[in-house]
Structure formats: C-alpha cells, structure tokens
Specification:
The protein is α+β, with helices and mostly antiparallel strands. The chain is built from three helices and six strands.
Length: 91
C-alpha cells in the first residue's frame, strides 16, 4: 500500500539545497521507501521558480513559471512524514 505526504510552503530553496535534499530520499531507514517526489518551490535567488521530479536513480530540477505558494508531494511506502517535514521544511 502506498501513502503520500504533501505540504504547501513559503520556504525558499536554492537549486543546490534542493538537490541535496532530494539526494537523501534514498535513505529508506530514515524516510521510508520513496517512489516519487515532485513539486514547485520559490527560489532563494529570486529567479524563476524551481520545479522538480524525483524517482529513485533519476532527478530533474528545472526553472519555470511561478505559483502562489510552493507545493511538494512525496509518494512511497512507509513514508516517515515527520522526517520528511524536517528534511524539507526544517520543522
């Protein structure tokens, strides 16, 4: 059975910071078996918004149109929502 965790956030990210966060999603002991993550977040540099897609072994980060607020979603099995929140949002 799959579950998902999603959140809206006003937090701003750099591309490097986001890539580092996404690279950690393969740690099943900490975050569960993450099958997919996707979202759009505000950029720390004030440029175009950052869109991302992640599946194990493949990551896509690109710039694109703005949204009102950042949104992200993680889909997997046994996802550890508190750990995911801390990883992405810091809370």
């Amino acid at each position: 059975m799959f579950d998902s965790w999603g959140v809206e956030t006003a937090k701003k990210f750099s591309e490097d910071e986001l890539r580092e966060i996404l690279s950690q999603l393969g740690d099943e002991d900490r975050y569960g078996a993450v099958l997919r993550a996707k979202g759009i977040v505000a950029p720390a540099d004030g440029g175009e918004w950052i869109h991302f897609d992640y599946v194990p072994g493949e990551l896509s980060v690109r710039r694109g149109t703005a949204e009102v607020t950042g949104r992200l979603c993680v889909i997997g099995a046994g996802t550890q929502t508190k750990a995911l929140r801390k990883l992405f949002i810091g809370q």
